[in-house]
Amino acid sequence: MGGHNLVETSKGTTASEAYENAYASARAEFGYDGYNGTVTTFEGFKEIPGPRGLQAKTKENAISKIFAGNLTEKETFKYEKAGFNVDRIQNAGDKWGPVAMMRLNKNTFILWGIAAS
Length: 117
Description:
By secondary structure, the protein is α+β, with helices and mostly antiparallel strands. It is 38% helix and 24% strand.
């Protein structure tokens, strides 16, 4: 079986609450298949601290671009300078491991990783 990049947002005041909300939503929509390509294929979550002072959409776009990979040296420098740990973001969320999460704002988190499909 394979895997694909999963990047999605979920509401919650804590990472745990946001993870539980994403998990429950995926279970309701996609069921119990261990290869359904959703957050349910991960073993829990790992919260990664993000830079402060950036708008949620800026963080969301940065995570999506960094996790997709193929950054130029200039882009890598730009994201590192803004406070993103590019290596950690790119290597987080291994298939079958914990999904990576970062707070975007007070009530929203972004989740990313390689989902089993």
